Amino acid sequence: MTLQHSWNPPALAVLFLLVLVLSAEGSQTVGRWRVGGECACLLHKSIRLSRLMAKQAQDLLSTYMSSQGDFSETFCKLPVKEVPRAEITGYGTVVRLRNIHTTLGLFLQHITVVMEEQENLQDAENPLLEVLLDAQAHITNMATSVSRILQTLQPNEPPEVAGPAHASSPARNIFQQKIYGCAVLTNHRDFLSHVLQELKNLKFKGHTCVSRRERSFRGAEHRTS
Fold first, then answer.
1. What does this protein do (predicted)?
2. Which of 25, 33, 68, 184 could form a disulfide with 72 if both were Cys (CB 3.0 to 4.6 A apart)?
């Protein structure tokens, strides 16, 4: 005996809508997995780079101090107002990542000035100059990585734009240049230490690579389950 089902037009319409909804949800799920995976990969690479940069920043400061002659430890303790701060500010993942990106740009500007001043003070063979160049390249790479993470988290937002590579600098005598350079590199070292810790903390949060819209979706999904 053969059973035959007759589908009336309203039932077919409901079935068609159900198929569309399921297809849309499936596409959104795949998209969320892709975005989350991409962000996690970027975060992992950024952590590795920040770990390298934090170590090299300490080596850079030591190399700088050894190149400045006597009393370097003394003048390295003197404060300088125009140097970027080492702290990461703001509340929330996106805001703090933006602050990291902005501060990286500031340090790039100031380290460029330090580089120019040290080129006038040091021999061309001094290893300090090469280490300063490496620091500039690493900062640029880290800023790019953070910008890509932000684009993954908020694809509809305009990308973070790096500031000018050079900061306006007042005229300083040799002693002031040494103080300024040490202050920049000290805060640069401390800032990168904070960046490494910040990225590691993000890695262990369940909502690390999830946008605000996706977190809202998950919260609603959890409440209805």
1. CNTF is a survival factor for various neuronal cell types. Seems to prevent the degeneration of motor axons after axotomy.
2. 68
Find the Cα–Cα–Cα–Cα dihedral 112, 114, 117, 121, rounded to 10°. Answer: -130
Running DSSP on this structure, what letter comes out for residue 5? -
Residues 122, 125, 128, 132, CA torsion sign: positive
Closest to 135 in 3D by CA, of 205, 50, 46, 60: 60
Helix (H, G, I), strand (E, B) or coil at 132: helix
Distance CA 200, CA 203 (A): 5
Q: Tell me the two tokens of residue 82.
A: 């125009």
Q: Please report where in the chains the tokens 């990286």 appear, as a residue.
A: 104
Nearest-angstrom CA–CA distance, 107 and 84: 7
Q: Could you give the domains of the chain?
A: 37-219 (1.20.1250.10)
Mean per-residue pLDDT pooled into runs of 10, the chain (225 residues): 55 54 43 53 89 96 92 84 92 92 96 95 93 97 93 77 64 90 96 95 59 43 44
Whether 193 and 100 have beta carbons less than 8 Å apart is answered as no
